[in-house]
From TrEMBL:
<keyword id="KW-0028">Amino-acid biosynthesis</keyword>
<keyword id="KW-0100">Branched-chain amino acid biosynthesis</keyword>
<comment type="pathway">
    <text>Amino-acid biosynthesis; L-leucine biosynthesis; L-leucine from 3-methyl-2-oxobutanoate: step 1/4.</text>
</comment>
<protein>
    <recommendedName>
        <fullName>2-isopropylmalate synthase</fullName>
        <ecNumber>2.3.3.13</ecNumber>
    </recommendedName>
</protein>
<feature type="binding site">
    <location>
        <position position="242"/>
    </location>
    <ligand>
        <name>Mn(2+)</name>
    </ligand>
</feature>
<dbReference type="GO" id="GO:0003852">
    <property type="term" value="F:2-isopropylmalate synthase activity"/>
</dbReference>
<dbReference type="GO" id="GO:0003985">
    <property type="term" value="F:acetyl-CoA C-acetyltransferase activity"/>
</dbReference>
<dbReference type="GO" id="GO:0030145">
    <property type="term" value="F:manganese ion binding"/>
</dbReference>
<feature type="binding site">
    <location>
        <position position="206"/>
    </location>
    <ligand>
        <name>Mn(2+)</name>
    </ligand>
</feature>
<feature type="binding site">
    <location>
        <position position="208"/>
    </location>
    <ligand>
        <name>Mn(2+)</name>
    </ligand>
</feature>
<keyword id="KW-0464">Manganese</keyword>
<keyword id="KW-0808">Transferase</keyword>
<keyword id="KW-0479">Metal-binding</keyword>
<comment type="similarity">
    <text>Belongs to the alpha-IPM synthase/homocitrate synthase family. LeuA type 1 subfamily.</text>
</comment>
<comment type="subunit">
    <text>Homodimer.</text>
</comment>
<dbReference type="GO" id="GO:0005829">
    <property type="term" value="C:cytosol"/>
</dbReference>
<dbReference type="GO" id="GO:0009098">
    <property type="term" value="P:L-leucine biosynthetic process"/>
</dbReference>
Length: 390
């Protein structure tokens, strides 16, 4: 086991309450947002992006209240690149022990065309808005939205302007989930090499999952020098979602041998917060979702169940207890074998002789062919049927 406490820290920036909530249909009530913010704070999230204060009175109220009650986490609010947004954001986050203003503007050709700004006009806007934010708060994050589709020379130019204007974190968003791991790493490396002052600030990676590569892209960025990962619980977020917090955190824990970076997350709280976010957002977690899916620690086939009963490491690379589950689950179905049936019957307090187990196994298989999963009550009924027919 490696000692993670001496390793470079990767900050975990959770945006479930901002980017996650932007997912169509995922709206949360004020009380629900407070509950999730408390859970994130207790779990050890470094920065909570609590909302977009100018977006609505409700968002403003939630960000203000979360700022007042957070015990450890930095509380961040989002704002577009204009003074009104930034002032409103500051009004909401200023109550926090550690407040942060996050301001952004789309820098790729497609996004520059929307406000119809020339490259020079946009550069000036970035300078003015970051300076304004920094005059209010000494913790300022700036994001060039759609960074992964922005010309490299222009990206370097605007990142340098934002750093000179006082940004303390530069976030590199892959807004449309377009990048791939090698490119994600190369981009961070290029910025660190080419931008004067880059070594004085923290680079963040913010990935979307449109091609299913958000986790891989985030970890590749960390290996290249990013020290903040932006993510959401269950990967909640617009379209295919954001990087899933539970995935990057557990990847850094389980493969710490090849990715030697530490986080402050208490991973034993992951399952609980995953379930709460699923319930309050109304977004079910897919059964085979990495880390927190119902089947992530379940084994049905006979070969796997037999292996698990002999040594859990045969088919599990992490312990279910590490994410807050009480143990592995060995659901019985048509692929299960005798060893799992014997173990299950023992758990249920039924001791069977070999011939009784063989008989039960035949009838269990027949039932499993008709039913997706065989439950404890089904097994007890099969045993009772055998007793009464004797
Ligand atoms: O995906 C994105 O570009 C964003 C920014 C607002 C940071 O969420
Ligand atoms: Zn985003």
């Amino acid at each position: 086991m490696t000692d993670q406490t001496t390793q470079p820290r990767v900050l975990i920036f959770d945006t479930t309450l901002r980017d996650g909530e932007q997912s169509p249909g995922a709206t949360m009530t004020h009380e629900e947002k407070l509950e999730i913010a408390d859970l994130l704070d207790e779990m050890g999230v470094d920065i909570i992006e609590a909302g977009f204060p100018i977006a609505s009175e409700g968002d403003f109220a939630a960000v203000s209240e979360i700022s007042r009650r957070a015990k450890q986490a930095t509380i961040c609010g989002l704002s577009r690149a204009n003074y009104k947004d930034i002032d409103r954001c500051w009004e909401a986050v200023r109550h926090a022990k550690s407040p942060r203003i996050h301001t952004f503007i789309g820098t790729s050709p497609l996004h520059r065309a929307i406000p119809n700004l020339t490259m020079d006009e946009m550069a000036e806007r970035i300078h003015d808005t970051v300076t304004h934010a920094r005059n209010l708060c000494d913790n300022v994050q700036w994001s060039p939205m759609d960074a992964t589709r922005t010309e490299h020379d222009y990206l370097c130019r605007v990142v340098e302007i934002a750093i000179k204007a006082g940004a303390t974190t530069i976030n590199i968003p892959d807004t449309v989930g377009y990048t791939a791991p090698r490119e994600s790493a190369d981009l961070i490396r290029m910025l660190l090499e080419r931008v004067p002052g880059a070594e004085t600030i923290t680079f963040a990676t913010h990935c979307h999952n449109d091609l299913g590569m958000a986790t891989a892209n985030s970890l590749a960025a960390v290996e290249a020098g990013a020290r903040q990962i932006e993510c959401t619980i269950n990967g909640l977020g617009e379209r295919a979602g954001n990087t899933a917090l539970e995935e990057v955190v557990m990847a850094l824990k389980v493969r710490n041998d090849i990715m030697p970076y530490s986080t402050r997350i208490d991973t034993r709280r992951l399952m609980h917060i995953s379930r709460r976010v699923s319930t309050v957002s109304g977004f079910a977690v897919q059964f085979n979702k990495a880390i927190v899916g119902k089947n992530a620690f379940a084994h049905e086939s006979g070969i796997h169940q037999d292996g698990m009963l002999k040594n859990a490491e045969t088919f599990e690379i992490m312990r279910p207890e590490d994410i807050g589950l009480s143990g592995t689950s060995l659901p019985l179905g048509k692929h299960s074998g005798r060893a799992a049936l014997r173990a299950k019957m023992k758990d249920l307090g039924v001791d069977l002789a070999d011939n009784q187990l063989n008989d039960l196994f035949v009838r269990f298989k027949a039932l499993a062919d008709r039913k997706k999963e065989v439950f404890d009550d089904d097994l007890l009924a099969l045993v009772q049927d055998a007793d009464t027919s004797e």
